Amino acid sequence: MSPAEVFQRLERITVNPPRLASLAVLLAALTLTACEEKAPDSIMTGEPISTDAAPLDRNLDPQQVARGHAVYTENCLECHGEAGKGQPGDWRIRDADGRYPPPPLDDSAHAWHHPTAVLLEAIRDGSPGGQGNMPAWRGKLTEQQMQDVVAYIKSLWSDEIYRLWWEMEQQSLED
Ligand code: HEC
Question: pLDDT tens for residues 123-165?
Fold first, then answer.
C-alpha cells in the first residue's frame, strides 16, 4: 500500500458513516451501562447483564509494551510527547508551512480510530508523499520494534477507548 493509499484508508475509516454509526451505538451502550449501574437488569431477571459492547480483551503482553516504551522514548517522544500526550497547542491546526503538528497518540486524538495495520503503515511510511513531518521508519526500526511501539501506544488508551478500538479492529479484519 502506498502512503497516499494508507492515508486515504485512514480517511475512509475515520469518516465512513456505518462505522461512525456503530461507534455511536457502542458509545450509547456504554453510557447506558454506566447509567444503569445502580439498577442492572439482573435484579429484574436474574440474568447477567448483556450489552452490545464488545468484550474487553486488552491482551497486551507487558514485556512487549515495555519494549515498545523503550522504542518510543528513543524515537517518538520528542514529537509525540510524554505518554503520547502530544505537544502544547492544537494538533488539528496546520503550522505556517501547512504541516500538521505531531498529534497525541494517547486516546485524546484519533490514533485509536485506526486498526493495527493502518497504524503500522503510518509508522512505516510516515506522512503521505513526505508531505508532513512524520518520518518514515521503514529501514530504521525493525518490524518487531514497530509492532512493539504500537502495543505501547495501545497501552496508553483507557478501557473504554480500547473497547471501541477493538470493535473497529474486528470490523477492519472482516473487510
Ligand atoms: C519529527 C517528529 C515526529 C517523530 C520523531 C515521530 N512522529 Fe509520528 N507523527 C508526526 C506528525 C507531524 C504526524 C502527523 C502526520 C501528518 O499529518 O502528515 C505524525 C503521525 C503519526 C501517527 C498517525 C497518528 C494518527 O492519529 O493518525 C502515528 C501512529 C505516529 N505518528 C507514530 C509515531 C511513532 C510510533 C514514532 C516513533 C517511532 C513517531 N510517530 C515519531 C511527527 C513525528
Answer: 999 998 888 999 999 999 999 999 999 999 999 999 999 999 9
Phi then psi for residue 12, to 5 deg, are -60, -45
> 62-174 domain in CATH 1.10.760.10?
yes
Residues 4-47: pLDDT tens digits? 555 555 544 444 444 444 555 454 444 444 433 333 444 444 55
Q: Do 163 and 57 form a contact (C-beta atoms < 8 A)?
A: no
122 lines ligand 1 (CB under 6 A): yes
Ligand 1 geometric centre to CA of 134 (Å): 4
Ligand 1 atom 17 nearest Cα: 100
